[in-house]
Specification:
Layout (H helix, E strand, L loop, with lengths): L1 H11 L24 H7 L9 H5 L5 H6 L16 H7 L12 H10 L2 H11 L21 H22 L3 H16 L7 H24 L4 H11 L4 H25 L2 H14 L13 H4 L3 H24 L22 H4 L2 H40 L28 E6 L2 E6 L26 E2 L7
Antiparallel strand pairs: 1-2, 2-3
Helix pairs in contact: 1-15, 5-6, 6-8, 8-9, 8-10, 9-10, 9-11, 10-12, 10-17, 11-17, 12-15, 12-17
């Protein structure tokens, strides 16, 4: 009865509670980034193989070289925070006896040049305005292709970033800017996919483009037109909205799979398998989550209760994100702070599946806010650089940028107020967001929290990027 009631309430608000109802609309092939020949070979692999010959050929990394390569003594960045291309040349297995005398930038560019036709094909594909990969949303996790395009984008983005820096060092900012815009386009190709994983891939790829923009600004290589192009493309990014779409999709996926399990009586089979497994010798026991002895005693009505509770709780998150998308902080989302599963009340423990996922939900929301802050600050930094190119120095405050250098200043995604700005000298500034903790720490960078349940203290500062 509770599930029927919450389903009625949310559907009356226009919410869609199964994944198939959230399927992105079709796009004509001539407008679809993923309908180009480079990706068609992925789509037509009906045997479920994960080998994609032409896309795999575009990987500049030499697996043979990497086996014997060591980056010991090398750092990924130099003292200024700039990319150390020698590190990446060795890491990619591209350094050999034959090219010892060449610069790291030229070695990387040569590796790309060997597959120039394929990379140009990717640029051509990126000109198409839409993107929709043909996932089977009725059984998306069982679709052998559902990760294939994500893996390709995860391969392309860091390598394009390396090439953009190589072009900077070779004095070719036009080519460097082209690579950065392609990373942004690859990220945007996933913007309408209604699952958490594509959202996470976007949150990983966009910072690669943004850190390359920062590096070019610090090197003073960009023209005003290139800076304007970056600002124009980044102005369209809305990571909180993508997070909302992902939350709806994950809720729909959970409800869809759970409903199918109930309808097919699969749950009874799971329980029987679990009991048989419990009686089996230790070495023969399977480790899948559904063989937990706790779940053996659950009923179909308990599953409906989980659908009810999860749908309501995730709707609370969605409502808060949609109500004020420019106010994502620990105070607003304090209800996601579950310190320890043992601290849950008995009522909360009856909805353990939801509370096991709370930490991941909070981490995803925090990351989306952080990347949005980087996007916003990149736009402001591009406007600041254009101002300096025209005036010879940076302005005293950000309001001087409006409207000649930026139409409207974005508000801090963590506070709904202005981003913090400080002019240090005529050619140095500090720009920052107050971060998820909601406290202004005067641009002190975030320190990693001891564990996933703790709030990261510190600010999200421009030019300070997470390093792996």
């Amino acid at each position: 009865r509770e599930w029927a009631q919450v389903k009625k309430e949310l559907e009356a608000r226009g919410e869609k509670l199964s994944l198939v109802e959230l399927v992105p609309p079709p796009i004509p092939d001539e407008e679809n980034f993923f309908a180009t020949p480079l990706f068609q070979e992925v789509i037509t692999l009906l045997d479920g193989s994960k080998e994609f010959p032409r896309i795999k050929e575009m990987d500049i990394r030499s697996l043979e070289g990497m086996k014997g390569s060591s980056t010991r003594g090398l750092k990924a960045t130099d003292s200024k925070g700039f990319t150390n291309l020698e590190y990446w040349t060795v890491h990619n297995g591209l350094r050999s006896k034959e090219n010892q005398g060449q610069s790291a930038a030229s070695v990387i560019l040569e590796a790309f040049d060997k597959k120039r036709e394929l990379w140009e094909e990717l640029y051509k594909a990126a000109e198409r305005p839409g993107a929709r990969f043909p996932l089977h949303y009725e059984n998306v996790t069982g679709d052998p292709l559902w990760m294939s395009h994500l893996n390709a984008i995860l391969m392309f983005s860091p390598q394009l970033r390396q090439r953009s820096v190589a072009f900077m060092e070779e004095g070719k900012p036009k080519e460097a800017a082209r690579d950065i815009l392609l990373i942004i386009r690859l990220s945007d190709a996933l913007s309408n996919e209604t699952l958490m994983m594509p959202s996470m891939i976007r949150n990983a790829c966009l910072p690669m483009a943004i850190s390359a923009i920062w590096e070019g600004i610090e090197r003073h290589v960009w023209t005003t037109d290139q800076l304007q192009a970056f600002e124009d493309h980044l102005a369209k990014e809305d990571l909180p909205a993508s997070m909302v779409l992902s939350l709806r999709g994950e809720r729909g996926l959970f409800n869809q799979h759970t409903s199918d399990m109930i309808a097919s009586h699969e749950w009874e089979k799971v329980k029987k398998s679990a009991k048989a497994t419990e009686a089996a010798p230790e070495d023969d026991k399977k480790r899948d989550w559904y063989f937990s002895p706790v779940l053996m005693f659950c009923t179909e009505n308990w599953l409906r209760g989980e659908m009810t509770y999860t749908s309501r709780k995730e709707q609370d998150i969605i409502d808060k994100l949609e109500e004020k998308p420019r106010e994502i902080n620990s105070q607003k989302f304090s209800f996601l702070e579950v310190r320890n599963l043992q601290d849950l009340t008995m009522q909360q423990r009856s909805h353990m599946l939801y509370y096991m996922a709370v930490g991941s939900l909070k981490a995803s929301i925090t990351k989306s806010a952080q990347v949005q802050a980087q996007v916003d600050m990149a736009r402001i930094a591009c406007a600041l650089e254009r101002y300096k190119m025209a005036k010879g120095e940076y302005p005293e405050n950000l309001n001087a940028l409006v409207p000649d250098y930026i139409e409207k200043l974005p508000n801090d995604v963590a506070s709904a107020k202005s981003y913090r700005y400080r002019l240090n000298t005529t050619d140095k500034f500090t720009l920052w967001s107050i971060g998820f903790d909601g406290v202004d720490d005067n641009a002190t960078p975030v320190k990693k929290a001891p564990n996933i349940t703790e709030i990261e203290k510190g600010d999200w500062a421009w030019g300070v990027f997470t390093k792996k």
